[in-house]
Every structure is written in C-alpha cells, then in structure tokens.
Amino acid sequence: MGRKRELISNGNTMEDVVGFSRAVRVGNFIVVGGTAPVDADGRKVGVGDVFMQTKQCLEIIKSALEQAGSS
Predict the structure, then answer these.
(1) For 15-60, what is each residue's pLDDT tens digit?
(2) Around Cβ 8, how many Cβ atoms within 10 Å?
(3) Could you tell me the domains of the chain?
C-alpha cells in the first residue's frame, strides 16, 4: 500500500510554467524544492541585498512547511 503524496504550492505562476511544487509531503517526510527570493507575483525581492533575499527565501520555506503540516 502506497502513501499519499501531497503537493504544496504557494501559488507562484512559475510552478505551473516549469512544473514543480514548493514542497512535497509523503507520510512524515516533507521535502522543500529550490527556493528563489521572489514575491507572490514572481518578482525578484531584495535585488543586491543578500539579507533580504535570504529572509524572503526562509519565509517561503516556512510557509510551505506550515502548509504541509509541520510546526
């Protein structure tokens, strides 16, 4: 018997264009895909500012993990 695979999306339009999910949950495992510092509309965040880019990426990852049921 296989486990259910849950695909996690944050609604970024590029997910459909290139065919990836922000994260995937199977059982107790959650895997997060590569993350770029973009906003909900796909615009770059923090150009030239590595702190802001890192902060944006971590916020995207945090949101995906919470959506997948992690705490």
Answers:
(1) 778 888 889 999 999 999 888 899 888 899 999 999 999 999 999 9
(2) 21
(3) 5-67 (3.30.1330.40)
Token pair, residue 51, equals 């702190």
Taking the C-alpha atoms of residue 50 and residue 70, their distance in angstroms, rounded to an integer, is 27
Q: What is the 3-state secondary structure (H, E, C) of 23-65?
A: EEEECCEEEECCCCCECCCCCECCCCCHHHHHHHHHHHHHHHH
Cα separation, 39 vs 32, in Å, equals 17
> What number of CA atoms fall less than 13 Å from residue 5's CA on the CB side?
6
Whether the Cβ atoms of residue 23 and residue 8 lie closer than 8 Å to each other: yes
Identify the residue whose tokens are 């296989």: 2
User: Is the pTM of the predicted complex or chain greater than 0.85?
Assistant: no
